[in-house]
Amino acid sequence: MDDILKVAMPKGRIYKQAAKLFHLAGLPIPEDLEEGRRLIIPVPEARMEFILAKPVDVPTYVEYGVADIGVVGKDVLMEENRNVYELLDLGIARCRMSVIGLPDWKQVINPRVATKYPNVASQYFREKGQQVEVIKLNGSIELAPLIGLADRIVDMVETGQTLMENGLVEQEEIFQITSRLIANRVSYRMKNESIQRLCDMLQAVLPVAKV
Ligand code: PRP
User: Boundaries of each ATP phosphoribosyltransferase catalytic domain copy (predicted)?
Assistant: First the structure.
């Protein structure tokens, strides 16, 4: 195993906050990584290599060891349930997973629940002893109750703006979401020193990080 640390970074809303945190910790992640089209960015002076991935794929890259570590939201971790170590709560990209519906929603038998998170939604309603039909969608989940595809949705709420603009209300919070640092189990043993050092550097700036 080479001694370059391969880091899977999620494209999109988490990236900028993660980049800021890495910078604060003195780790040289390029801040404009997302602006180009390159997917693999070596930073040889730090013996690191950044891999830009779709957020939902980060735990897969880490589980299979093509990335040693990765940054990923707790929402994706819960949904994907991959065999990885969760090392650190980075406290960034804070939001929540919630059950959402129209304000005049009424309980029906076997309601339809639309979501990007079918495993999370199924587990939540199973644990509550409620039978539901889960419908997997890939985005714009808020459409589902508005056009009659589903009775409720399970989705991420950050500012609440999407709900407000579409006349929907949050009914129940399922769990809080922040981004986590995860590691491949073998890498964690083989590259323990460099992974632990990076983890410590990030942890040291968490109390002062206003991201
Ligand atoms: C997410 C989520 C909500 C929205 C919540 O969607 O699915 O729709 O953000 O954010 P808010 O509370 O700040 O409005 P995303 O932007 O990832 O796009 P998507 O609809 O394609 O999933």
Answer: 54-203
pTM exceeding the 0.85 threshold for the entire prediction: yes
**Is 188 found in the same domain as 89?**
yes
* Residue 209 banded pLDDT, cuts 50, 70, 90: confident
C-alpha span between 181 and 176 (Å, rounded)? 16
Residues 164 and 99 in one domain: yes
pLDDT tens by residue, 26-41 = 887 777 766 778 889 8
- Determine the distance separating the centroid of ligand 1 and the alpha carbon of 162, expressed in angstroms: 7
- Residues 202, 90 contacting (CB under 8 angstroms): yes
Q: Distance from the CA of 127 to the center of ligand 1, in angstroms?
A: 25
Cβ < 6 A, ligand 1 pocket: 139-142, 155-162
How many angstroms separate the alpha carbon of residue 140 from the centre of ligand 1? 7
Residue 10's domain spans which residues? 5-93+178-208
Lay out the sheet containing 69-73: strands in order across: 40-43, 48-53, 5-10, 69-73, 179-183, 85-89
Strand partners of residue 52? 9
Name residue, tokens 């009914």.
171
Q: What is the mean pLDDT of the chain?
A: 94
Q: Provide the domain count of the chain.
A: 2
- In degrees and rounded to multiples of 5, residue 152 shows phi and psi of -140, 170
